[in-house]
User: Fold this.
Amino acid sequence: MKAIAVIPARLASTRLPRKMLREIAGKPLIGIVYEAVRSSPLLADVVVATDSEEILQVCRSHGWKAQMTAGTHRSGTERVHEVSCREGAGVYVNVQGDEPMVRAEQIAELLKVMEKPGATVGTLKTPAAEVDVQNPNAVKVVTDMEGRALYFSRATIPFDRDGMRPVYFKHLGLYAYRKTALDRFVKLPESSLEKSERLEQLRFLENGIPIFVGETPHDSVGVDTEEDLQRVIRVLNGGQGSGVRGQRTRFRLAGIGCVFVPKLLQLRGGGRWRDGNGKTIPPTWRAFARPGSARQVYSWK
Assistant:
C-alpha cells in the first residue's frame, strides 16, 4: 500500500500571523513538521501543499518537496485532494502544517487503521488530559465498539450525568484517506454540523462516510498562538516534560504537561513523586491525580 503524506500550509493565520515561517531553533515551523513526517519509513513521499509563493520558495531552498495549490480551497482536505489528482497513492495522509510534534509512531498507527476492511477515512485519538476535557480547542471524539467515530465535538462528550468519570478521548488532527473518499468530500457542500462545530470531518459523518479511529498514547500539539509556539520551543530545547519516562507516557505540550502511566507513578514519603523505576520527578512540578479511573492521569506544570 503506497502512502504519501500531504502537509497543507497556508501563510495567512489570524491568531499567529505567518506561523508557518516562524523559526524554531533556526528552522521554520513548516520545516520542523516536514522533517518529523519524513522520519516515517512507511511513507513513499511527503509533499507540502501551499497557496503561498513564499512558503513554496522556502521549502524548495531547503530541499523540502512542495507544490502550489489553489488559493480558493476552504480546507486542508481540499488541498490534499488537489495533490491526490497529481500524485498517485493508495492512501493519502493529511498532517497539518502547524503540528511540529507529530511522530512516526502516530503515522504507523494511522496507516494500520487504513488496513481495516472498508476503511476509506481514518484518524487518531488519544486519552484526553484533564485540562483538555472542558477545553473547546481540544476536540473530543466518541467511537463505537468497532472503532468507528460516532461524533466529534468541541463540547465535552460523553456527558457524565451520574459521575462515572469516563475516559475522554482527544481527537488528533491527523487523517488518512483513500482517493474515493477525497473525491466525494470535495463534491459535498459544507454540512450543518460542520458549520456549527467548525470541524470539517463532520462532513464525512453527516453524509454516511465512516471514519475509523485508531488510538495512540502519543499526544500532539498544534501551534495556534504565540504561547503554543514558545512552549514547543522549550520542549524541543529539552525543557518542559523532559526526563520522565513510563510505559505509556504522553505530554500535552500546548498546555500543562500530562503523563499517562498506569500504576507506575506513586506518591512516596516527603511529598516526592517517583516513576516506576524510583527516579525522582522534579519537585518543582505540581502534580494532580485523578482517582477512581482505570487510567491514572498525572499533570505537571
About this structure: The CA atoms of residues 121 and 209 lie 8 Å apart. Confidence is low (pLDDT under 50) at residues 240-301. DSSP finds nine helices and 16 strands in the chain.
